């Protein structure tokens, strides 16, 4: 029987109360503060939820009101969202690193009246915008450092609000009554999309969407009561909401919050989670760290690493093809487990990890295969904000790096005539907030969600995502061109952090590349190259030769027609503040193509450089312009560069 069939478990905050009753003093959440892990039991979480819900009521927060949270992952911020829902309100998490204009748009569009902020930094950011936020009534802060004693009338400390809730006469019965009024079809949260094609849209997700998707997910994935994962992904990302709220509440898993973004990897090693959730950017960074450590080791260790990694990849390819692994390979892999694979997992904090997932964007198959080959049970999930984060996922024993697995139980797939994937099921959202026209464009009349992704379904029922449907094109000779595939290949290099590929309608593929500052910086230091900044490093001829050589190596793994012929090294990283990528690191292709049009023209006009004028946005909204002439380099391994489309 589904949790949604019973009134006592039909909403997310009701599940907190159920868990407190069933699991009692077992851990619900942990938070690392000043080097010490602090545990919150399910009983503690339910008491916090009740007090905060009642405290919000004393501030006038009630049914239909909107509450936003902003800050790093903190138990108090997760529980604040649940407290808003327990009071009949709606939660709207926002990105903690969002610039002023982004915050103003979302907070006004959602009509947020209460903001729960982590600390002084976030409070100051909100206060600087209050003149543009007519709906805002209260700012509640968790960390009092720098804010205690403030006479700002909008401010309340979290402790004040909790204390007020505890003092409400008949509070327990009031809380129970309000909680009981909530139903599965109430809106639980407004999750704003990443905005790859324009302004973010607010997807209305109900408790039925969230709980139903979580229940269906755990029918096919092993999530156990007491499982640990580290919650370090932005709370505004719907994937975090699904795992850290819905899946954790449905199963009784434990959500662990790191001390800060800077301590995530150290905290990961300390915690030794049973489950790891990370987007492609994290896996690419971890791979780079391993490659750099291997490159910096002694010649003997490099040879050992190279030998056993080659053996591991060979074994993984045999397993993927369903072929038997020879005895010699099995024996060598067992030795490699002791010498290489186990130590790497220890270094990364994955010794106890039962399974790990990547999602939010495609992960290159080479990177994916690397982690599986060293014994990490890495699997891909695919989803969208409008489908409550989860559409498909890979099952144990049936993992193909070129697919994202099978549909979540209860979800239907179909491929439209134009190749677009469409889905229907319990996780599909009810619509966009205050954007009926956009809802009509995204959902068919019979309830299918148009994902916007080009996809194919294998005979085995596995889903393969090609790229965003609008981004898939063809070269001038008719060769299919999927830029994401090329970009993921390039990003397998430890020296390349980001890449944007071009080629639709053109005679060849070209790419803009942003170097990995840390990795290239380490390489430059070993070579005795002095540099002062990202721009200075990226303009070094030696660095250009390095990246061109990396592109040439990657070209050897690509079909000849889609090999990268020309590259340009950007003098800055692609930045979400500059609208070049989303907060989840997806390239805003339309904006990038317009902003870097002189580069694209120079690629295909055979020029040796491009004059670029780039607008840089600071956190407070101020803008600056950076003008530069950047060299364009041919990739010799691809043959003579074509100088015209």
Compact description:
This protein has 645 residues and is an alpha/beta fold.
What would you note in describing this structure?
This protein is an alpha/beta fold and 645 residues long. It folds into four domains: 3-250, 3-Layer(aba) Sandwich (Rossmann fold), CATH 3.40.50; 275-351 and 353-382, no CATH class; 391-468, Luciferase, Domain 3 (Luciferase, domain 3), CATH 2.30.38.10; 473-638, ANL, C-terminal domain (GMP Synthetase, Chain A, domain 3). Helix content is 38%, strand content 22%. The strands form seven sheets. A five-stranded parallel β-sheet has the order 4-3-5-6-7, with helices on both faces. The chain has a five-stranded mixed β-sheet with strand order 12-13-14-15-16. The longest helix has 22 residues, at 299-320. It is globular, with a radius of gyration of 25 Å. The model is unreliable at 638-645 (pLDDT under 50).
Structural class: alpha/beta
| N- to C-terminal distance | 60 Å
Q: Numbering strands along the chain, what is their spatial order in the largest sheet?
A: 4-3-5-6-7
Give the count of structural domains: 4
Strand content: 15-25%
Low-confidence stretches: 638-645
Report the oligomer.
Answer: single chain
| Overall spatial form | globular
**CATH-defined architecture of the largest domain:** 3-Layer(aba) Sandwich
The rounded Rg comes to 25 Å
State the CATH class of the largest domain: Alpha Beta
CATH topology of the largest domain: Rossmann fold
Count of DSSP H/I helices: 21
Task: Give the arrangement of secondary structure elements.
Layout: H1 12-23, E1 27-33, E2 36-41, H2 42-58, E3 66-70, H3 75-86, E4 90-93, H4 100-109, E5 114-117, H5 120-127, E6 138-141, E7 155-157, H6 158-166, H7 171-181, E8 187-192, E9 202-206, H8 207-220, E10 228-230, H9 238-251, E11 254-257, H10 264-271, E12 275-278, H11 280-296, H12 299-320, H13 327-348, E13 355-358, H14 365-373, E14 378-382, E15 392-393, E16 406-407, E17 412-415, E18 420-424, E19 431-432, H15 436-442, E20 449-457, E21 463-468, E22 473-474, E23 480-481, H16 483-490, E24 496-502, E25 509-515, H17 517-526, H18 534-538, H19 541-555, E26 564-569, H20 589-595, H21 597-604, E27 609-617, E28 623-634
Parallel strand pairs: 1-11, 3-4, 3-5, 5-6, 6-7, 10-11, 12-13, 13-14, 25-26
Antiparallel strand pairs: 1-2, 8-9, 9-19, 14-15, 15-16, 17-18, 18-20, 20-21, 22-23, 24-25, 26-28, 27-28
Helix pairs in contact: 1-2, 1-9, 2-3, 2-6, 2-7, 8-9, 12-13, 12-14
């Amino acid at each position: 029987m589904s949790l949604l069939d019973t009134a006592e478990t039909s909403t997310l905050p009701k599940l907190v109360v159920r868990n407190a009753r069933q699991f009692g003093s077992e851990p619900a959440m942990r938070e690392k503060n000043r080097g010490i892990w602090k545990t919150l039991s399910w009983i503690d979480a339910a008491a916090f939820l009740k007090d905060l819900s009642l405290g919000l009521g004393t501030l006038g927060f009630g049914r239909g009101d909107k509450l936003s949270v902003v800050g790093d992952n903190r138990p108090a911020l997760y529980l604040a969202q649940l407290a808003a829902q327990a009071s009949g309100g709606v939660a709207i998490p926002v990105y903690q690193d969002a610039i002023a204009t982004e915050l103003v748009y979302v907070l006004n569009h959602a009509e947020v009246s209460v903001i729960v902020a982590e600390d002084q930094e976030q409070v100051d950011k909100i206060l600087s915008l209050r003149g543009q936020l007519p709906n805002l009534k209260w700012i509640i802060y968790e960390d009092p450092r720098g804010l205690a004693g403030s006479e700002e009338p909008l401010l309340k400390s979290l402790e004040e609000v909790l204390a007020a809730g505890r003092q409400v006469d008949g509070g327990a019965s009031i809380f129970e009554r309000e909680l009981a009024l909530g139903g599965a079809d109430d809106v639980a949260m407004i999750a704003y999309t990443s905005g790859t094609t324009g302004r973010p849209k607010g997807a209305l997700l109900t408790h039925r969407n969230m709980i139903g998707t979580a229940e269906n997910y755990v029918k096919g994935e092993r999530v156990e009561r007491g499982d640990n994962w580290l919650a370090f992904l932005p709370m505004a990302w719907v994937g975090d909401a699904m795992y850290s709220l819905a899946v954790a509440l449905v199963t009784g898993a434990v959500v662990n919050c790191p001390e800060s973004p800077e301590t995530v990897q150290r905290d990961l090693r300390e915690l030794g989670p049973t489950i790891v959730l990370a987007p492609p950017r994290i896996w690419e960074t971890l791979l780079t760290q391993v490659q750099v450590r291997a490159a910096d080791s002694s010649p003997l260790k490099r040879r050992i690493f190279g030998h056993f990694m080659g053996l591991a990849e060979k074994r993984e390819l045999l397993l993927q093809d369903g072929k038997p692994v020879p005895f010699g390979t099995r024996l060598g892999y067992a030795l490699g487990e002791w010498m290489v694979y186990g130590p790497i997992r220890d270094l990364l904090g994955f010794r106890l990890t039962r399974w790990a997932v990547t999602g939010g964007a495609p992960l290159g198959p080479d990177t994916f295969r690397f982690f599986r080959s060293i014994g990490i049970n890495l699997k891909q999930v695919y989803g969208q904000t409008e489908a409550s984060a989860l559409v498909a996922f890979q099952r144990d024993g049936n993992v193909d790096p070129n697919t994202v697995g099978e549909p979540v139980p209860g979800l239907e797939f179909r491929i439209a005539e134009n190749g677009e994937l469409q889905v229907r099921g319990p996780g599909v959202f009810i619509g966009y907030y205050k954007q009926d026209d956009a809802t009509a464009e995204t959902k068919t009349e019979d309830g299918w969600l148009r994902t916007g992704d080009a996809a194919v379904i294998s005979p085995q029922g596995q889903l393969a995502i090609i790229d965003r449907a609008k981004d898939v094109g063809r070269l001038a000779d008719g060769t299919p061109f999927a830029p994401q595939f090329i970009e993921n290949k390039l990003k397998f290099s430890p020296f390349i952090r980001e890449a944007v590929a071009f080629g639709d309608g053109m005679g060849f593929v070209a790419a803009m590349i942003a170097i990995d500052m840390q990795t290239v910086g380490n390489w430059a230091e070993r070579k005795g190259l002095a540099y002062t900044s990202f721009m200075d490093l990226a303009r070094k001829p030696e660095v250009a030769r390095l990246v061109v050589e990396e592109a040439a190596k990657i070209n050897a793994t690509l079909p000849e027609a889609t090999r990268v012929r020309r590259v340009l090294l950007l003098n800055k990283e692609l930045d979400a503040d500059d609208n070049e990528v989303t907060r989840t690191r997806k390239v805003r292709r339309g904006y990038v193509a317009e902003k870097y049009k002189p580069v694209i023209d120079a690629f295909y006009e055979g020029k040796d450089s491009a004059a670029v004028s780039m607008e840089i946005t600071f956190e407070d909204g101020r803008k600056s312009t950076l003008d530069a002439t950047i060299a364009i380099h041919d990739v010799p391994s691809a043959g003579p560069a074509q100088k015209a489309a």
